[in-house]
Structure formats: structure tokens, C-alpha cells
Write a structure and sequence with these properties.
Number of strands: 5
Order of helices and strands: EHEEEHEHHHHHHHHHH
Distance between the termini: 39 Å
Radius of gyration: 22 Å
Length: 377
């Protein structure tokens, strides 16, 4: 079975964050290392086939997605962890980096099918943490391993997500519904949009970190969808491979979601999230960005929910963020079959509604909005 193993690596604790030049160098070293891998030796000498890798570098480290074919989830995780550790150790510039997490992320559809198919006394537990604990106990029977601590794992994940919050430089806590006394007095527009939510500083931080974490997932999964469609020379409606994100877009255009479309959509998502993290964001630029943000919010919510962190306060913080960034929700009509055709109706312009047909998705709302040249061509 093919597994996607996510590896979080970090720079040494207390070290200075990497600037753009250092990130470029780290990316090159990691890519060169993975390009040299043909196969990975797993536990008990079992060979695990290395298929592909995706590397995303950020100031505090790198997130790597490694695609391998292995007989079981445990073999995939352990072999990839060992391979990445060896890769880091061989590089003088990366030798002090640490592996914070190495885990398989099952596609939600596959995970659900697996649980639904399981039955009887030997069926795996429904709870993801308990399931992972059971798998950990069965790994290499007889070997001395530390018992899985679900609470410690969840706490570490929460710390990791919270540490990413400062990277969302375009938005302050007020955008997530956290209001200080100063906010309430100064009449700031950001405060006004958050006034109805009243979330805590902790909720705002966790929501912001989840958006940064979700950005890596969004980009990685769009890359994977583009690769699948390119390999099959197909579109989302007719593709036989598993889609990670593109099937979440409005179904009425599924026949037109091919590899070229996906690359345009990916570049648009990158342009949007770059403005989020650089601090230059002002407004969403086009319909494609509105849809990309919808997917990003979904990624953030899924990550938080998977790790038991999606409390009502954090959910409200994400709602406050969406309420502040979206100017309107007209794009939601694209998901409503009863409005099929409204996206191409000429009278929508007279109603102040931006064109929403597929050809207009990458067209700026007005001259002041930025859309990447690759996407708009």
C-alpha cells in the first residue's frame, strides 16, 4: 500500500530563524538528498519503495511529505524517520536539525473506509489516538519501545501549531475575535469586525497557527492533485486516482479541472498565502482566491479537529477571521445546484455581483487587486 508520511523537521532550539537565502539552501540540500534515494530499508530488513517527496521550507524548519510503498503503516513511518534522520546527519548544515514528528496521514476517505470495514474483536479502535497507540504496541513484537502517550503527543502538536502563529504577519489577534480594552476604544475596523465573536488570546493564537500549518497542507495536496491529473492526462470528473482537494471545488466545472487548471489554482493559493505571511495582504483578489481560502479554512479545521483542538472558541476565532477577510459570500452560489447558470448570467453584473464563470475565476475584481501573471494568463 502507498503511504504518505509527513515529517516535521526543526532548526536547533534557540537558533535564529532562516532568512530567504538560508531557506533556499536548505531546500536544495533536502531535495538533493531525496533525489538520491531509490529505496529505504525498513524494520527487519524489509525494503520500502521510495516513490516521491515534496519539501516545503519555512523560517523554523521544513515540512516533508514522503510517498512510499510499504506492507504496513508502521514500516512506512519507521523507515522514513530513519531515512530522514540519516539525510540530516550526512549534511553538515542540517546535522543539528531535529525531527519533531513523523506520521502517516491517511486520506480521509481511505481512513473512513478502513474503519467502516473493520469489525469484530480484532477491529481497530475508532479513536485515532487509541488506534495509533495500538499500532505502536504491535510494532516489532518483542522489541523494547516506549509506550505511546496520546496526551503528550497532542500537547506537542498544539505547541507546534501555536509556534507558527507569528508567521501569519498580515493579521493581528483582533482579526480572530480577540479584543483588548484598547481595541474597544480606538474604533479600529479590525476590532469592529471581531466585536461579535469575543474569543480569547489563546483561541486566536491557535487559529492563526492552524492557518499557517494548513497552508503547507493546502500547497502539498494541490501539488499532489496536479501530479495525479498530469499523470493520467485527465480531469477531476474522470480521474480514477484519489483527489486530495480539487473535488472540494464546485462540481459543476469538474470536467474542466485538469492539470493546467490545477497549476493556475495552486499559484493563486501561493500568492494569497504569501501575502498572509509576508504581511502585505489587503483584500482577496479574485474568485479563485475566495475558493482557495475556503479550502485553507477547511484544512485548518480538519487539523485542529483531528488532534482534538477544535474547541468552540477556536472555531469562533476561525469564523471571525473568515468574516473579516471575505467581502461577501457570493461564491457560495457556485456550490448550489439550484443556482446553476447564475455564474454566467449577464444580469449579475448589474446586481453588483462579480462574474463567477470559470473563465473569470482568475480575473482581478478591479485594477487594485493582484493576480499572479501565470494564473491570469
Amino acid at each position: 500500500m502507498v503511504y504518505v508520511v509527513t515529517v516535521d523537521t526543526r532548526i536547533p532550539a534557540g537558533g535564529a530563524e532562516m532568512d530567504a537565502l538560508h531557506r533556499t539552501g536548505a531546500l536544495a540540500l533536502l531535495k538533493q538528498g531525496f533525489d538520491a534515494i531509490e529505496a529505504i530499508e525498513g524494520p527487519d530488513g524489509i525494503e520500502v519503495a521510495f516513490l516521491d517527496s515534496i519539501v516545503a521550507v519555512y523560517p523554523g524548519g521544513a515540512m516533508v511529505k514522503v510517498f512510499v510503498e510499504a506492507p504496513a503503516l508502521e514500516f512506512a513511518e519507521e523507515s522514513v524517520s530513519a531515512a530522514v534522520a540519516e539525510l540530516l546527519d550526512r549534511s553538515e548544515l542540517l546535522a543539528d536539525w531535529t525531527i519533531e514528528r513523523c506520521a502517516v496521514e491517511l486520506h480521509p476517505d481511505l481512513a473512513r473506509e478502513s474503519l467502516e470495514a473493520a469489525d469484530g474483536p480484532d477491529a481497530p479502535p475508532d479513536d485515532p489516538a487509541a488506534r495509533r497507540a495500538a499500532l505502536g504496541h504491535s510494532l516489532q513484537a518483542g522489541a523494547e519501545t516506549e509506550p505511546f502517550n496520546a496526551q503528550a503527543d497532542a500537547e506537542e502538536t498544539e505547541r507546534s501549531i501555536r509556534s507558527m502563529a507569528p508567521e501569519l504577519r498580515a493579521f493581528g489577534p483582533g482579526m480572530f475575535g480577540f479584543l483588548t480594552e484598547e481595541d474597544l476604544q480606538d474604533g479600529d475596523p479590525e476590532s469592529a469586525c471581531a466585536e461579535d465573536f469575543g474569543t480569547s488570546a489563546s483561541d486566536a493564537e491557535l487559529a492563526a497557527g492552524a492557518l499557517v500549518y494548513g497552508t503547507s497542507l493546502l500547497v502539498d495536496e494541490l501539488f499532489q492533485d496536479a501530479e495525479t491529473l498530469s499523470h493520467e492526462n485527465s480531469n477531476v470528473a474522470e480521474c480514477e486516482g484519489m483527489m486530495w482537494l480539487l473535488d472540494e471545488l464546485p462540481g459543476r466545472y469538474a470536467l474542466q479541472y485538469d492539470a493546467q487548471f490545477t497549476r493556475r489554482f495552486l499559484v493563486t493559493a501561493l500568492a494569497m498565502t504569501t501575502r498572509f505571511t509576508e504581511g502585505t495582504f489587503q483584500q482577496l483578489s479574485c474568485v479563485a482566491e475566495e475558493l482557495a481560502l475556503k479550502l485553507l479554512l477547511r484544512e485548518a479545521s480538519v487539523v485542529l479537529d483531528t488532534h482534538g483542538l477544535l474547541s468552540s472558541g477556536v472555531s469562533s476565532a476561525l469564523d471571525a477571521f473568515a468574516d473579516g477577510v471575505y467581502e461577501d459570500m457570493d461564491f457560495e452560489w457556485l456550490y448550489d445546484d439550484s443556482t446553476d447558470g447564475i455564474d454566467e448570467a449577464p444580469e449579475t453584473g448589474s446586481l453588483g455581483i462579480a462574474p463567477m464563470d470559470l473563465d473569470s475565476w482568475f480575473t482581478p475584481f478591479n485594477k487594485g487587486r493582484y493576480v499572479h501573471p501565470y494564473a491570469s494568463s
